[in-house]
Design goal:
There is one protein chain. The protein is of the alpha+beta class. It has a single domain, classed as Chorismate synthase, AroC fold, CATH 3.60.150. The chain contains 8 helices and 18 strands. The strands form 6 sheets. The protein has a 5-stranded antiparallel β-sheet, covered by helices on one side. The protein has a 5-stranded antiparallel β-sheet with strand order 9-8-10-16-11. A hairpin with a 4-residue loop joins strand 1 and strand 2 (about 10-15). Helix 1 crosses helix 3 (about 130-145) and helix 3 crosses helix 8.
Length: about 350
């Protein structure tokens, strides 16, 4: 299977399956002499791991990461960093009934069509558990960005049709959704409980804000910064749409409304989301990702088996009610990976003020 590696200079390959012995990542291109410990990575993994709330999958995975290479006496060496996360709480027997049945909304059917074989134990590489490796790699990218004063944060702005009506960022950390609207967070919690009660799931929208991104990142035509960000986020299994800045709302604006005026003091607006012609403008990057409802629901669904026979399916096992809030660190990780890669690539074009990390 190809397509498991991302990046040009900061390259990340993830490996492993949901119910295999372990999963992990190999990071090639990390600058040397950066302080890095397993604790730096663990902090991010703890935000993503299952079993933290009643609406989350009860699968109990500690997601303890081990650094196998690329770090010596607490500092990166510039050689490939290999990470491993052991699977400790697999219950593969829960999926026995799905061996010959395609789950609606999952990759079961398409994987079978492409490879002629599929891993029905949790979906294999198509499982959301694969994102643990992304978060681990993203934690390293986040540390590189921190040397440059670049900060990446994700927030819940919609869940199950409930939208955040205000944006008080200081309130975001006060609720488990990291929602900047405290009243909206309460309504989101109620919507989540209602869906769980009837055996259904909910989708939502995540907004990612990047502060401190220097102007100049990105390349014209095929390697535009917004194109790479969109691809990175769309590579997350649950994401079905990405928009930058005004996004789809720009289609309903006039040019005079959508253009961001330039003043001696800087930009007067940010409808472009911090990216013009595929290159960062120096403003905050504003990115949104639309996440679909988790397809594993307790309600009866219509599907077919591997022979094309009709089947009525009720999915059992341990599943989340929504990818939110566990998807937040995953979205942040993918944005961090893209930004570090473009930051390193920009070094070959012009000298962004350097730090001792790069």
């Amino acid at each position: 299977m190809s397509g498991n590696t991302t990046g040009v200079l900061f390259r990340v390959t993830t490996w492993g399956e949901s119910h295999g012995p372990a999963l992990g990542a190999v990071i090639d291109g990390c600058p040397p002499l950066m302080e890095l410990t397993e604790g730096d990575i663990q902090t991010e993994l703890d935000r993503r791991k299952p079993g933290q709330t009643k609406a989350s999958s009860p699968r109990k995975e500690g997601d303890r990461v081990e650094i196998l290479s690329g770090v010596f006496e607490g500092k990166t060496t510039g050689t490939p960093i290999s990470l491993i996360i052991w699977n400790r709480d697999t219950r593969s027997k829960d999926y026995d009934a799905l061996r010959n049945v395609f789950r609606p909304g999952h990759g079961d059917y398409t994987y079978a069509q492409k490879y002629g074989i599929r891993d029905h134990w949790g979906g294999g590489r198509a499982s959301g558990r694969e994102t643990a490796a992304r978060v681990a790699a993203g934690a390293i990218a986040r540390k590189v960005l921190a040397w440059e004063g670049i900060m990446v944060g994700a927030y819940t702005i919609a869940l199950g049709g409930v939208k955040a009506e205000v944006g008080i960022m200081t309130e975001a950390g006060q609720n488990r959704f990291n929602c900047p609207d405290p009243v909206g967070a309460i309504k989101m919690e109620a919507a989540l409980k209602k869906a769980q009660k009837v055996g259904d799931t909910l989708g939502g929208i995540v907004e990612i804000i990047v502060q401190g991104c220097p102007a100049g990142l990105g390349a014209p035509v095929f390697d535009k910064l917004d194109a790479d960000l969109a691809k990175a986020l769309m590579s997350i299994g649950t994401v079905k749409g990405v928009e930058i800045g005004a996004g789809f709302a720009a289609a309903g604006m006039t040019g005079s409304q959508c253009n961001d005026p330039l003043l001696p003091s800087g930009f007067a607006a940010n409808h472009a989301g911090g990216i013009l012609a595929g290159i960062a403008s120096g403003q905050d990057l504003v990115i949104r990702a639309a996440c679909k409802p988790i397809p594993s629901i307790a309600k009866e669904q219509h599907t077919v088996d591997i022979n094309g026979n009709p089947v009525k399916l009720t999915i059992e096992g341990r599943h989340d009610v929504s990818v939110i809030p566990r998807i937040l660190p995953v979205c942040e990780a993918m944005v961090c990976l893209v930004l570090v890669d473009h930051l390193l690539r920009q070094r070959a074009v012009t000298r962004i003020p350097a730090t001792s990390a790069i």
